[in-house]
Structures
1.
Amino acid sequence: MNVFGVGLPEMAVIGAVALLVFGPKRLPELGRTLGKTLKGFQSASKEFEREINKAMAEPEVTASDASSESSGDTGLSQSQSSEDGADVVQSSLPPSSEG
């Protein structure tokens, strides 16, 4: 039996030390808490793995696809969108105090 790289003799020593440190009354409570914590970590790990697999399965959008879609959908020329961008930048700047 080998769990987390710990064999049966090592588990027995850990159990004996835990029994001495925490006592027989608190040991079952600590075992339940440890079990719930490990179950929570395990479910979070599975959810994370599921999300990663889901993201890997989604089709990728290449840069050329994105640029052709964005230029075809807007109908604006490059200079028009550049001018609009300049207007946005100028409107976001604080007024200058030239005088």
2.
Amino acid sequence: MHASFPNLYIILQIPRTIITPSFKTTQHLSLSSLHNRPLSLLHLHLLQIFKLLFFMFITISSNLQVV
């Protein structure tokens, strides 16, 4: 029972290590574009739309696999 606990902890840590750097890079890109370009708002909107479509695609494909 005690031996399986660290494995569960590692599995829980994996998504955090994947999500956090990508979030930091997107944040950094949006901040740098805010300083450099007036089109930064458009860039942020496109990024959000892309993320939304990506998550929608994942949920739809997973639903299709279940059915």
